[in-house]
Amino acid sequence: MCFTLIFRLSNNGAKRHLFSINCTKFQLFYYSTAPANVTNSSNLLVDLLVNSVGFSKEKAISTSTKVTCLKPGNNKPNLVLNFFEQIGLHKTQIKTLVSAYPGLLFSDVDNTLKPKIKVLQEVGLSGSNLTRVITRSGALFHTSLDTFIRNLDYLRELLGSDVDSVAMVIKRAPWLFSRNLPKAMPPNILLLERVGFSSMDINKFFLRRPLAMVQKTEWLESVVRRVEKDFGIPRGSPMFKHGIEAIVNFGESTLKMKLEIFRSFGWLDSDILTMVQKLPYCLTASEAKLRKGLEFFMNELGYKSSYIASHPTLLKLSLEKRVLPRNEIFKLLKEKLLLRRRLCLYTVVSYPESKFIENCVLPFRYELPELYELYMKSKG
Questions:
Q1: Burial, 147: exposed, middle or buried (Cβ in 10 Å; 0-12, 13-18, 19+)?
Q2: What share of the chain is helix, strand, coil (3-state, %, to 5)?
Q3: What is the pLDDT of residues 20-63, one digit of tens each?
Q4: Measured at the alpha carbon of residue 206, what is the angle toward residues 232 and 201, in degrees to the nearest 5?
Q5: CA distance 16 to 24
Q6: Among the record's GO biological process terms, what is one (predicted)?
C-alpha cells in the first residue's frame, strides 16, 4: 500500500499533498509514542538509582541521560545490582561503579559479567581483592569476553605459574584488560631484552610499571636514550634498570620541572648527574617533597649540594616521620655530650627503626629517661 502510494505521488501532485498529510500524521503518532516509552523507562531508572543505589535525585537524572540503551520493561539493572551484591560489593562500591560506568547496569549478567568474574576468581582473586579490581576498572566489563580471556592467557604465559603475580598485576592495573596485550607488549619486551633485562627483570618491571609496557615502543626507546645519554648511566651499570624504572614515571616536561627545582637551590648539573647515577629513584619524589627536603638540608642544616648528591637517600626518606624526629634526638645527644662515638645525621637517619632505638635511645635511658617519649612524640 505504501509503495503504491509513493509511486502515485510521483505522477499526481494532488495526491502528493494528501499523502504528505497522512504521512505527517503517522510520523507524529510514531514519535509521540516512542519518547513516552523512553521517558517512562528513564523515570524508572532514576527511581532505581535513587532507591537502590543511593544517588541523589539530581545525580540520578544526570546519570540516566548518559544511558543510551533504555528500553521499556528492561529488567537488567535489577539483575546487575543483585549480581554485584552477590559477589560482595558494598552499596558505596556499587554507587561508585555505576556513577563511573552507568552502562554497566544494562550488561548481560549470565553471558558477560559472570564469565569474567569466574575467570578473575580462577586466578586467585576473591573477597576484597576481587571487589577492588572491579571497582577500580569497570571498563573491564566493556571488553569482549574473547579479548578478556586472550589478555589473561597472555599474562599467564608471561608471568608463568606465579598465580600471585598474575593477581597482583590485575589488582594494580585492571585497565590492562581493555588493551590488546599480545600485540602491545612483545615489541617492548624485545627492546628491554636488547638492553640487558632478563626475563625476571622484565616481569618485575611489568609488575611495578605496567603502563610503561603497553606504550609505543618508540616512547620506551626514548626513555632508554635519556637514561644512557642524558644521565650517563651505562647499560652495564646496576643502576641502569632502576633508571629506566624511574624515568618511565613522568614525561619530559615533568622531568624538566624537577631538575629545575635542584637548580633553583644552586645545584650544578654535575651534582644532579651524580645524584641520579647513585639513586635514580630520587627523581620519583614529588616536587613538594624535593623542595621541603632541599630547604631543610641546605637552608637549615647548611649541607652542600655536592654532599646531598653523594648521599641521595636523604631526599627519599620521609622528612616528617623519620628525618626530623631523629634529628631532634641527635641534636639533644650532641648538646648533652652523650654521643660516645662519632656519628653523623646521615648515619642516624639511615638506621632501621630497631637499630636506631638500640643505638640512640636505649643506651641513654638513665641519663635522659624522657628520650624515648620525646622521640615518639616528635614522630606524631
A1: middle
A2: 75, 0, 25
A3: 334 433 333 333 344 444 455 567 888 888 988 888 988 888 88
A4: 60
A5: 12
A6: DNA-templated transcription termination
